[in-house]
Write a structure and sequence with these properties.
Radius of gyration of chain A: 25 Å
Largest interface: A-B, 44 and 47 residues
CATH class of one domain in chain A: Alpha Beta
Distance between the termini of chain B: 6 Å
Largest sheet of chain B: none
Number of strands of chain A: 17
CATH topology of one domain in chain A: Dipeptide-binding Protein, domain 3
Oligomer: heterodimer
Structural class of chain A: alpha+beta
Radius of gyration of chain B: 24 Å
Number of helices of chain A: 16
Low-confidence stretches of chain B: none
Helix content of chain B: over 70%
CATH superfamily of one domain in chain A: Dipeptide-binding Protein, Domain 3
Helix content of chain A: 25-40%
Number of helices of chain B: 13
Low-confidence stretches of chain A: 7-22
Distance between the termini of chain A: 41 Å
CATH architecture of one domain in chain A: Roll
Shape of chain B: globular
Strand order of the largest sheet of chain A: 13-12-14-11-15
Mean pLDDT of chain B: 88
Order of helices and strands of chain B: HHHHHHHHHHHHH
């Protein structure tokens, strides 16, 4: 009798485990319905600089390597093969060779070969006759001499110097392999890839439709029959649509923290996560003309920032304070908290910081009777405008009377480029959580995205040193030092790193929101629906 | 009459020519073009790439050359290519016109079919509780912006019925097909209905005090006959004028309504095109709207003569 009871008990114990196992078995079929926050300017990922392009079109393509789509944190340890079967560095770390998978076909039936890899990167590096209309990530490959092939299934990147970060750059959602036989113009309107989903149609301001690639080289994938993105620019309408069950997934990181509460209350079964977006909100300072050519005024401004106030007002406390690199635990390269708090303006005693700021302002000739009048320029978008208003309020505490200057998107960059601003509130997104991408793009002398023209030759040398370092622990320490120096130089004061929410219906499985990039997690080949 | 119509048509052509110049020049005065926007989004400006793209799109040509290229193409039915989608502008615009036309038509129908009868009822029952109630409704119609009303309708639909009447290109049932147009049409037509109602009411009140109304009553005509056959027929002229003007203003309301209800019509497309400075789309769409407005005015003028036989357009 006792043995029977034991058997029943054991069976009951095993039952939930069996349920979990059966539930974890992916079901095939179904169209995944996602709303899209805006109409992307085109379908060519290489020509885009917003994840509005990556999210719908990354499923059309493959990279050589990619970040494991089931792991939330992108790192060198989560790199997995995609079109490449394997890869290896040469002994001097100046040549990266990929063995490519065989039997892979483009969606139009033509075979994929190493020539396509060479074509793609020649075009990205600006070395081919065919040109992209715009080529925003050309600088990622500054250290690549050329790409060579050896037969149809081997391609090598030959570097000027070691750059371990290259693999991470190649794994980004921004780095798909394009077909040689399709023109850049056609890739903008009718993209052809090797990926799990084929492009069906893109109706501007309406929808993007993808269908299953039944000939996909990864057997058994994808699980879905297709994906439909409905373009809804009005956030309220989009979220109401999700609540009403018209959509299975919200647009990634589209739900602000205050709105997340509404979603959860109206749709209690929805699965929602809040993750860092690796987009920092920062101040660009025009240090080429008065008053911010005076380092004391710049430092005073940095000291006046109450970063916690920004985060509590805008994110109900769910944001992160850090330097240039994304803070931990999401970020891989963030300096330790103790080190961060040593940087002027990052210490916990805001009043003491502001007293210090006032002294610096007085030294520069300003005070209670002589306020400094400035304009804070920013784009006419909520994510820019709202923190700018808080910044203006905080600057009042150190004799700075600031006025908001909202600028139309079309005018923002030309205005910044011609230095027609005193202070600007800016957002900087990072496609890959790697110092090479962040430092070279935003702080390197002469870089197009270095809006403030900050140029420090000493730091430039440090950029190169960290970039070549293959020992991760050593590189981390070098990166922390650089980041600390950048903040002390008030090169581009970082206010906070944002977080945002993504929700999906409970029957949607296999969705992973990346915690250190908003650009790399949209292959959707593992996503399935349990219904 | 014929000569008048010909003169009006000629004047329309001159007006449209003037409008085309205004549209073209204004669009170029607005700071920034598509190249600025594309490169702003990329956060990257290589001056050579930028210049190449401006040349490719014809934006580096003198403005006069650009204008005559557009007008020349327009006269031949070639509207150019969208800078963003790189598809023919006509191919982008044409499928959206029926959607907006259907919505605008329904909104105007809603506005007239609700506004006119309620205006008559309000005037006939002047000073009663019913009149006050209807005036409050009309006042709220004028005060509530259509985007706000649209959002309220959407929220109510979701919380009360668990459904959402946003656009679906392939509705499964006729009720869904009706809802995806009727609900936004009501949201956008509510303001217009309120205005129509107020104009009808005041016009009716004026007419109801006329001698011929008293005569009709003295002759034993029924109240319905007096109100609708005699009074309304005479009171309708200013209402038609207002409906004509509203047809032109409707496009403004449709922009937000199409956005809130996610309807892929012309109005929302125009805003998106403006955001991208997609000149071929914006120019042609605004021109199309101008043509519609000019024709609406022309039609209203012609309707005057039909409705009121006393009106004659002399030669």
């Amino acid at each position: 009798m006792r043995s029977v009871q034991t058997l029943v008990a054991a069976a009951l114990l095993l039952l939930p485990a069996y349920d979990v196992a059966s539930a974890a078995e992916p079901k095939q079929g179904g169209i995944l319905r996602i709303y899209h926050r805006d109409s992307p300017g085109g379908a060519s990922i290489h020509e885009g600089a917003t994840f509005s392009i990556n999210a719908p079109f990354m499923p059309v393509f493959n990279n050589l390597v990619m970040f494991d789509q089931s792991k939330a944190q992108n790192s060198a340890d989560t790199l997995v093969p995609d079109l490449a079967e394997s890869w290896a560095w040469s002994s001097d770390n100046k040549k990266l060779t990929f063995k490519l998978k065989q039997g892979v076909k483009w969606h139009d039936g033509k075979p994929f070969t190493s020539a396509d890899v060479k074509c793609t990167f020649d075009m990205v590096m600006g070395k081919s006759e065919q040109k992209f209309r715009q080529n925003p990530r050309k600088s990622w490959y500054n250290e690549v001499n050329d790409v060579t092939t050896n037969g149809d299934f081997e391609a090598s990147f030959n570097l000027k110097r070691p750059q371990p970060a290259l693999l991470s750059l190649l794994a980004s959602g921004y780095t798909p392999v394009y077909p040689c036989h399709v023109s850049p113009g056609d890739m903008r309107t009718k993209p052809t890839g090797t990926g799990p989903f084929k492009f069906v149609e893109f109706k501007a301001n309406e929808s993007i439709k993808l269908t299953k690639n039944t000939d996909y080289f990864k057997k058994g994938l994808p699980h879905l029959d297709g994906i439909e993105f409905t373009i809804i620019t009005n956030r309220s309408t989009a979220i109401l649509g999700f609540v009403a069950g018209k959509f299975d997934v919200t647009f990634p990181t589209h739900i602000t923290i205050p709105l997340l509460k509404d979603v959860k209350s109206q749709s209690p079964n929805a699965v929602c996560v809040v993750e860092p977006t690796n987009v920092s909100t920062n101040i660009i300072v025009n240090s080429s003309s008065p008053p911010f050519d005076n380092v004391d005024v710049r430092r005073a401004m940095a000291l006046a920032l109450d970063r916690k106030a920004f985060i509590s007002i805008l994110f109900e406390g769910q944001g992160d304070i850090g330097g240039t690199m994304l803070p931990a635990p999401g970020g891989l390269w963030a300096m330790p908290k103790e080190m961060l708090e040593q940087i002027p303006g990052y210490g916990p005693d805001i009043n003491a910081n502001r007293e210090g700021a006032k002294k610096l302002m007085q030294k520069a000739g300003y005070g209670p009777d002589k306020h400094l009048a400035v304009k804070v320029a920013t784009r006419n978008i909520g994510e820019y405008r709202d923190p700018a208003v808080i910044l203006i309020d905080q600057l009042k505490s150190i004799y700075i009377d600031a006025e908001l200057d909202v600028v139309d998107t079309a005018q923002w960059f030309p205005k910044v480029a011609r230095k027609d601003y005193m202070l600007g509130l800016n957002l900087t997104g990072n496609a890959v959580d790697d110092p090479d991408q962040s430092f070279y793009e935003n702080y390197s002398c002469g870089s197009e995205r270095n809006y403030t023209n900050y140029c420090n030759k000493e730091i430039e040398k440090l950029f190169d040193q960290q970039s070549q370092e293959t020992d991760v622990a050593k590189r981390k320490k070098m990166v922390w030092d650089i980041d600390k120096k950048l903040q002390e130089d008030v090169a581009r004061p970082i206010i906070f790193h944002a977080r945002a929410g993504t929700c999906w219906q409970p029957y949607v499985k296999g969705v992973t929101i990346m915690v250190n990039s908003s650009y790399n997690g949209y292959r959707y080949e593992d996503v399935w629906m349990d219904k | 009459m014929f000569a008048y119509i010909v003169r009006r048509l000629a004047l329309m052509l001159v007006t449209l020519f003037g409008i085309s110049i205004i549209i073209f020049v204004l669009l170029r005065i607005v700071p920034g073009n598509i190249v600025d926007i594309l490169f702003d989004a990329a956060g990257f400006v290589d001056p050579a790439d930028k210049a190449n793209l401006e040349k490719e799109l014809g934006l580096s040509d003198p403005i006069v050359v650009q204008y005559f290229r557009w007008i020349g193409g327009l006269l031949q039915g070639d509207l150019g290519y969208s800078y963003v989608s790189e598809k023919p502008a006509l191919q982008e615009i044409l499928p959206r016109i029926p959607i907006t036309a259907r919505l605008a038509g329904l909104a105007l129908l809603f506005s007239a079919s609700i506004g006119i009868p309620l205006g008559v009822i309000s005037a006939v029952h002047q000073g009663t509780k019913l009149d006050y109630a209807l005036r409050i409704v009309s006042l709220s119609g004028l005060s509530l912006p259509s985007f706000w009303l649209g959002l309220l309708i959407l929220m109510a639909s979701v919380s009360l019925f668990g459904m959402m009447p946003i656009f679906n290109p392939n509705p499964k049932t006729w009720t869904e097909a009706f809802a995806i147009y009727a609900v936004p049409a009501m949201a956008v037509g509510f303001r217009s209905a309120a205005l129509t109602m107020r104009i009808t009411r005041s016009s009716m009140l004026e007419i109801l005090r006329q001698d011929f109304i008293r005569t009709a009553r003295a002759k034993g005509a029924s109240e319905a006959s007096v109100n609708y056959r005699h009074a309304l027929k005479n009171a309708i002229l200013p209402v038609i004028t207002v409906i004509g003007i509203e047809a032109a203003f409707l496009i403004g309301g449709l922009i937000v309504t199409e956005t809130v209800f996610n309807i892929p019509g012309v109005a929302r497309f125009l805003v998106e095109a403006l955001r991208w400075r997609d000149y071929p789309i914006v120019q042609n769409l605004v021109m199309l709207i101008a043509v519609v407005v000019v024709f609406a005015n022309f039609t209203v003028d012609m309707l005057y003569a039909v409705i009121d036989p006393r009106i004659r357009y002399g030669d």
